[in-house]
């Protein structure tokens, strides 16, 4: 995703106390959206890609530098959501969930590094809890800048959004694309049938994983709609190859239920749906 920064002509630096800020941190960079909660309108969007990263300390330095230099982030907001993107998360059925067992649930699937913290989100559209980790250096950095922020994992809103989409669209396959991995969900009539997070090296890997899931779940692509979001567009080789094997492939839009108006023609809406659907 290219760097961009756009502000609507209605954006007012003196009214940020009525705005909602959503921040997405991913391995390749950081992005945010600002929604005017009174008008339910997206009034600012920004993306910054970290080029030529040289390890963890450099990554933290880039995040800190971005937060320090962006004057709009220094303002007071009505509410703030922080979305952390990583492959380290796991879903636990709500009926089996016990907060005291967070570490056991997580380490059954993923290793917990020494300086990682475990967090969890209750999904709103299915009876499950998403358990994930965030490096403590990142949580400390974010809380120092935004004491009132709420922590989320990218899969939380992605899954909920996919379920909502399927309530009116039947069989829905959701794909959220990042630089070296992607989320996939399969939903039908408001129910979640599959969620996974897969890595890929190139467009062939990317398409192979998706087509394989269609085959394993016996999904007829003539009856299912796929909605793409994240770091992908029509010029992307992943998109071109995907269209050779599957039909009904669309770019996602902001959910009608979120009521957020998106009017930035310079940036495709699907780049930011995971943030906009928080607003």
Task: Give an overview in words.
This protein has a domain at 168-252: Protein of unknown function DUF3822, C-terminal domain (Nucleotidyltransferase, domain 5), CATH 3.30.420.260. Strands 1-4-3-2-5-9 form a six-stranded mixed beta sheet. A hairpin with a 2-residue loop joins strand 11 (181-188) and strand 12. Helix 5 (203-216) runs parallel beside helix 6 (237-245). With 279 residues, the protein is an alpha/beta fold. It contains seven helices and 14 strands. The two termini are 22 Å apart. The chain has helices spanning 56-69, 102-109, 136-145, 154-169, 203-216, 237-245, 273-276; strands spanning 4-7, 19-26, 29-36, 41-49, 79-84, 89-93, 116-122, 128-135, 150-153, 171-177, 181-188, 191-199, 224-230, 249-251.
């Amino acid at each position: 995703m290219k760097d961009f920064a756009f502000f609507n002509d209605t954006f007012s630096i003196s009214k940020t106390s009525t705005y909602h800020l959503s921040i997405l941190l991913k391995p390749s960079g950081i992005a945010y959206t600002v929604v005017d909660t009174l008008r339910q309108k997206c009034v600012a969007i920004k993306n910054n890609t970290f080029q030529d990263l040289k390890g963890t300390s450099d990554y933290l330095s880039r995040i800190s530098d971005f937060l320090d230099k962006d004057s709009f982030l220094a303002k007071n907001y009505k509410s703030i959501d922080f979305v952390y993107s990583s492959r380290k998360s796991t879903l636990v059925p709500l009926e089996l969930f016990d907060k005291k067992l967070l570490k056991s649930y997580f380490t059954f699937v993923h290793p917990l590094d020494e300086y990682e913290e475990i967090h969890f989100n209750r999904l709103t559209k299915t009876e499950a809890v998403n358990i994930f980790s965030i490096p403590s250096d990142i949580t400390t950095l974010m809380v120092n800048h935004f004491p009132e922020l709420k922590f989320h994992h990218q899969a939380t809103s992605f899954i909920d959004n996919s379920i909502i989409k399927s309530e009116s669209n039947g069989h829905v396959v959701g794909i959220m694309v990042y630089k070296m991995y992607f989320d996939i969900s399969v939903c039908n009539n408001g129910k979640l049938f599959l969620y996974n997070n897969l890595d890929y090296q190139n467009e062939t890997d990317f398409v192979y994983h998706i087509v394989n899931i269609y085959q394993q779940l016996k999904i007829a692509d003539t009856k299912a709609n796929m909605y793409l979001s994240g770091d992908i567009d029509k010029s992307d080789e992943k998109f071109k190859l995907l269209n050779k094997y599957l039909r009904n492939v669309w770019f996602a839009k902001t959910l009608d239920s979120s009521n957020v108006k998106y009017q930035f023609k310079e940036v495709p809406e699907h780049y930011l749906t995971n943030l906009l659907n928080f607003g």
